[in-house]
Fold this sequence. Notes:
The complex is a heterodimer of chains A (688) and B (99).
Chain A: H1 7-22, H2 31-60, H3 67-74, E1 87-96, E2 99-107, H4 109-132, H5 139-158, H6 162-180, H7 187-218, H8 223-231, H9 237-254, H10 263-266, H11 272-280, H12 283-293, H13 295-301, H14 311-327, H15 333-353, H16 357-384, H17 392-395, H18 404-418, H19 424-438, H20 442-467, H21 482-497, H22 510-515, H23 531-553, H24 564-567, H25 569-579, H26 584-658, H27 665-687
Antiparallel strand pairs in A: 1-2
Chain B: H1 3-23, H2 27-52, H3 56-86
Helix pairs in contact in B: 1-2, 2-3
Amino acid sequence: MLDYAWIIPALPAVSFLLILFFGKRMPLRGAEVGIGAVGASFVLSVVAVFQWIDRVDNATGHSEGLRALGRGIFATQGHGEVAVQPVVNSITWWQNGLAKFTVGTRVDGLVVMMLFVVTLISLLVYVYSVAYMREEVRFTEYYSMLSLFTASMLLLVVADNTLVMLVGWEGVGLCSFALIGHFWEEQENSNAALKAFFTTRTGDIGLMIGIIIMFFAAGTFSISGTNAYALSRGADHSLLLAGAICLFIGIIGKSGQFPLHTWLPDAMAGPTPVSALIHAATMVVAGVYLGARLYPVFFEGFSIAAGGVNFMALIGGITIIIGALLAFVQRDIKKVLAYSTISQIGYMVMALGVGAWTAAVFHLFTHAFFKALLFLGAGSVSFSGSHHSFDMKSDMGGLRKPMPITFWTFMIGSFALAGIFPFAGFWSKDEILVTAGASGFDAFMVVGLVGAFLTAAYMTRCIYLTFFGEYRGHGHPHESEPLITVPLVVLSFFSIVAGLINAAPLGLEKFKDWVEPTVTFPALVHPEFDYPKALISVSLAALGIGIAAYFWFRREERGPLEGLTQRNALARAGYTFLEKKYYLDVLYENVIVAGIKGPIARGVYWFDQHVIDKIVNALGSGARRLGIFTYDVVDQKVVDGAVNEIAEATGETGGLLRYVQSGRVQRYALLLFVAVGLLSLALLIANI
Amino acid sequence: MGLNQFLILSAFLFCTGIYGVLARKNAVLVLMSIELMLNAVNINLVAFSAYRSNVSGQVFALFVITIAAAEVGVGLAIVLLIYRNVHTSDLDEVDQLKG
């Protein structure tokens, strides 16, 4: 399977076409094809996972086939620095002089992990959507787009060069546009889709420039070649820095990092399963994946090994805090989760920025499960609990009794997100913090701890408003059907156990062994598990839960914060500042866009009227004069003259020949004999 | 007798034939002139054959006589048909193919 990885994205791509053309005539309106294709991809991905594990174990020399998986989990065997080569299969697409372009697949631990996550979560989202989207418009189109979305993401994952990666990247952007704008009948939703498209496109410009810079630096689009160049001694550091910054701008756009994060909460306009897919497995993590894939470029470009503040860690750190703070002032449950994603992706980007590659990818892995779980849980709440509303303050509350499965799975997801021991998020977040501390990035470790505190607090608020207190909605809440709850249960299982795969104190470091590349990769820091730090982070999370619970659960008794925004001008200003989302949207829309619309547009209009139109008019009259000249001289005299001359010459020749074609036999005979005589004369002369 | 007398006779006959073909208006006379030309050729063939002691020239003369007989047969048939259609054997009148 490692050699035929192209099949995995090909299956959903084919199902996209099938659903598009034949979906409406099928009994389940195309859903069965989508589920079948992504299910097959999932099975193949699992096969690929086992084959990769086998390959790693064979390279490290302690395995007899698949049994190694079982032994690997329950035994502790760290392997030394043994090189496990990625499986690369590529064909030359076209070659022009020295520039050679290939397409193909490149499979290594990171790819295999991503294949597993993307196909698993896609499969669950597809199953969930059968129930969730049943009543909605354009069901078939929804499934076809979902298939293309998965296919694009898988293509992005298995690509062996940055060009193919870019194709997948843009495909993901296109599908997210289509899916966020699924309910385009409302202006607001299509605006959100456009905003997502344009904001990520802003970042994509950086990405494309970055890819071009890296091509001219390394002389190849291949990922292995680019990475090898970045690590080689001959690499030009300023080129690497420029390439890394441009590529990172692409990551900022796609992964919703500060300051281009504003599209992510608006993207909640799309159907909820799509939000789960975007936030857990596809679009948003594409940026982090790019960072992990081309990590040597960032590592060398930003001089991460030297320690200290760098662009990547800084952006990640800022995003953790601003995303978490914004989550406090949302009424919409999905927006809380959206800001939470921004904040969590901030952790991953910060981890990449502080040299914690394994931790960043590990957090991506665990986050995918619990964020998908939380989004699907929120969807379940709105589907069966709050009458299709996402407003926590007006339509939810007290839902834990009528919806026990949703409640408990949502709790598991929240615990995992908040980093409570022993849920998945605890292990990955702790690894980030420990590595940041061990690599000399103490300031970022503190930022991460503050983020952990804030995460726990806003999730407590969210759970309180949704599941506790009095029911404030108007519907009849009941538990959702199995098509919805089964994916929740599966995801909560992974949210509990996924972290154990790299639980250092238990001696399990399989994630590092299996996923971390061992060739053309910078030397990374792998610190020991640090009990005091883990204790601090868990206590901070618990403190966050406690404080938040104190404020919100005791609301009836009017806690100390109650009415603070009315009493204190500073608090009110802070609240408004958060509610306006730091005025970033205002900045973009009123200053940048309006500025472009205002003076710049007027300037451009003047330029258009006075310069471009003049040029166009001059060109027009010039062309007219040229046309008249052409007609008079060239056409009338030259062309027509030539035609007439030829006709006349033909006529004259014909007139001459008429005398020969007289129809008189004897004239023919005369011609014959004259010709014979002439020929004989010629022969005679020639023979003399 | 030398070869030259035969060649002169043959040339005389051939020129008479050409004159007849070109100058006569009657199709039958034109055909007869053609026969003269063919016989001029036969005389040449036989003369050269005798001169070189090689019979192939005489054999060719036989062939030419055979072809000439057939040709006259076809030619007379055409002339008869033309006469039946246009009531003349004057070649100047028979110019339906004139371009």
